[in-house]
Amino acid sequence: MDNQTEFENLLRSAQTGNESAQTAVYAKLSERFLPLIKRELHEKSIISKRIELGDSCGEICQKAIAEIKRMLPVNNPNWSLKKAINILRNVITDFILGKLLDFAKEGDVAAENLLFCILRNKLLERIYRKRWSN
Questions:
Q1: SS3 content of the chain, % helix, strand, coil (to 5)
Q2: Whole-model pTM?
Q3: Which residues contact 12 (CB under 8 A, 6 or more apart)?
C-alpha cells in the first residue's frame, strides 16, 4: 500500500509540471510494465522460443513508454494508469503480430494459425463493441 501511495504522490507532482517527477513516473511504469510484457511473450511459445525475451521486453517497453509520452503525457488531465496499460497492450499486440507475420512468411504453419486466430479474435471484439455502442 505504501508503494501505491508513493506512486500516486509522485504522479501528482509530475502532473503539476515537475520534470524529475515525470521522469520518475516513467521509470516506475517501466518497472511495472516489464513483467507484464514478459508474461505476454512467454504465453506465446512460438515467439518465446525464437526470440531473446530480455532484449525484446526492453524494446517493447521503450516503445510503449515513448507512445505513452506521445499520446498521453503524464501532465495530461486525462492521464490514467488504465489508459497507459491499454497503450502497452496495443504495443505488445503489434509486436506479437509482427513477429508472427515474419514467422508465417518463413513458412511456419503454427505461427500462421496463431496469427489468424489473434486477428479473428480482434475482429470479433471490434464487432461486439460496435454492436453494443449502437
A1: 85, 0, 15
A2: 0.86
A3: none
Task: Name the region of 44 (left: φ>0; alpha: ψ -120 to 50; beta: rest).
Answer: beta
Q: Are 37 and 96 in contact (CB under 8 A)?
A: no
Domain count, the chain: 1
Q: Which triple of cell numbers denotes residue 131?
A: 454492436
Report yes or no on 70 lying in a domain.
Answer: yes
pLDDT for the residue numbered 1 = 39
For residue 67, what are the domain limits? Answer: 32-133
Residue 8 placed within a domain: no
19 found inside a domain: no
Q: Is residue 13 part of a domain?
A: no
The average pLDDT across 24-33 equals: 92
